[in-house]
Specification:
- This protein is of the alpha+beta class.
- The protein has a two-stranded parallel ribbon.
Length: 56
């Protein structure tokens, strides 16, 4: 069974990256943990303040 058949997501979107300087949160740890569950997962990191990974 592949990700399509199991209902697993293909992409993990991480938002609010502008808040990272004020939080004890590790994006890399999140991605490592997510890869253990879904090895073929893609990541999209979004920061609205500077437009990172946003397309208009």
């Amino acid at each position: 069974m592949d990700a399509n058949e199991s209902g697993m997501s293909h992409t993990l979107v991480t938002t609010k990256l502008e808040l990272l300087p004020h939080a004890t949160f590790s994006v890399s740890a999140l991605q490592e943990d997510a890869h253990r569950v879904q090895p073929n997962l893609d990541f999209l990191e979004v920061c609205a303040l500077n437009g990172t990974d946003l397309e208009v």
